[in-house]
């Protein structure tokens, strides 16, 4: 089925929301829990599917649920529909600091492969599925694992990423990237991993054991701050359970660390 056409506005800088305007009867699908606000006449319903195949039976619905379990996402996708007679708006927010990227699937060949937690929302008619990385090395050691999300359609989809977003257009070149910094790429890009360097570089270089390699013809989106990296830093600098923080920059705080106060 053909996707709906909607108008949108991305609001904010580093903690963005995307505000989408729906005509009467139009629908947008979104990851569960991502809605920020909605105007009157907008109704929502959690469904076991993206709605791209209205004639799908119960077995197809269960298969879609199983695929979402593999990606670690919610079992359901929320459908937001304008039930009124006037245009209404609904907004969605990313769950951590970063950017929201609009992807026009019609301009990149109808498919976009992204990390499993990147999808935020998309116009009705967009098909959500998974794709398995064919290379065992990429599955075991790549930050994206075997399972990536695949978005298919001819309309707009919105994905989320951390920090600053970099868009690269490859014309047959090879790009080497930290595995966690990949947001997504178009269908013409091949994804694999390779060792980051010599044994000494792998152990002491601080860049991880492996790097992702992206090659081919197409579009690649990268992020400067993967959520996993942000979470690791927060955990590393958080006070221990039951302890009290005296401030990272204070003399008392440093002395407390030395003598086991924290």
Description of the molecule:
There is one protein chain. With 262 residues, the protein is of the alpha+beta class. The chain is built from five helices and 17 strands. The protein has helices spanning 58-71, 136-141, 199-204, 227-237, 251-258, and strands spanning 7-11, 17-22, 27-31, 35-38, 42-47, 77-82, 88-93, 98-104, 111-114, 119-123, 127-132, 147-152, 156-162, 165-178, 182-186, 189-195, 210-223. Strand 1 (7-11) and strand 2 (17-22) form a beta hairpin. The N and C termini lie far apart (58 Å).
How would you summarize this macromolecular structure in one to three sentences?
The protein is α+β, with helices and mostly antiparallel strands and 262 residues long. It has 5 helices and 17 strands. 30% of the residues are buried.
Helix-strand layout with pairing:
Layout: E1 7-11, E2 17-22, E3 27-31, E4 35-38, E5 42-47, H1 58-71, E6 77-82, E7 88-93, E8 98-104, E9 111-114, E10 119-123, E11 127-132, H2 136-141, E12 147-152, E13 156-162, E14 165-178, E15 182-186, E16 189-195, H3 199-204, E17 210-223, H4 227-237, H5 251-258
Antiparallel strand pairs: 1-2, 2-7, 3-6, 3-10, 4-7, 5-6, 8-13, 9-12, 9-15, 10-13, 11-12, 14-17, 15-17, 16-17
Please identify, by name, the CATH architecture.
Answer: 4-Layer Sandwich
Average of pLDDT = 79
State the separation between the terminal residues, measured CA to CA: 58 Å
Shape, principal axes of CA atoms: globular
């Amino acid at each position: 089925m053909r996707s709906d056409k909607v108008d949108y506005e991305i609001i904010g800088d580093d903690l963005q929301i995307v505000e989408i305007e729906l005509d009467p009867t139009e629908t947008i699908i979104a990851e569960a829990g991502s809605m920020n606000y909605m105007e009157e006449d907008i109704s929502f319903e959690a469904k076991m599917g993206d709605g791209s195949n209205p004639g799908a039976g119960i077995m197809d619905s269960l298969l879609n649920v199983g695929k979402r379990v593999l990606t670690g996402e919610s079992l359901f996708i929320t459908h937001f529909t304008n039930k009124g007679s006037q245009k209404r708006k609904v907004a969605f927010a990313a769950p951590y600091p970063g950017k929201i990227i609009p992807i026009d699937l019609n301009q990149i060949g109808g498919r976009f492969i992204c990390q499993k937690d990147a999808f935020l929302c998309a116009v009705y008619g967009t098909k959500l599925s998974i794709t398995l990385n064919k290379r065992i090395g990429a599955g075991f050691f790549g930050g994206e694992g075997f399972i990536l999300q695949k978005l298919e359609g001819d309309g707009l989809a919105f994905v989320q990423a951390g920090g600053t977003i970099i868009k690269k257009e490859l014309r047959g070149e090879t790009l080497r990237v930290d595995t966690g910094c990949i947001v997504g790429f178009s269908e013409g890009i091949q994804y694999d991993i390779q060792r980051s360097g010599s044994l000494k570089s792998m152990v002491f270089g601080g860049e991880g054991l492996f790097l992702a390699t992206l090659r081919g013809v197409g579009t690649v989106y990268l992020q400067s701050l993967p959520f996993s990296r942000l979470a690791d830093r927060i955990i590393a600098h958080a006070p221990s359970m039951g302890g009290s923080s005296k401030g990272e920059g204070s003399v008392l705080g440093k002395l407390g660390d030395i003598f086991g106060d924290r």
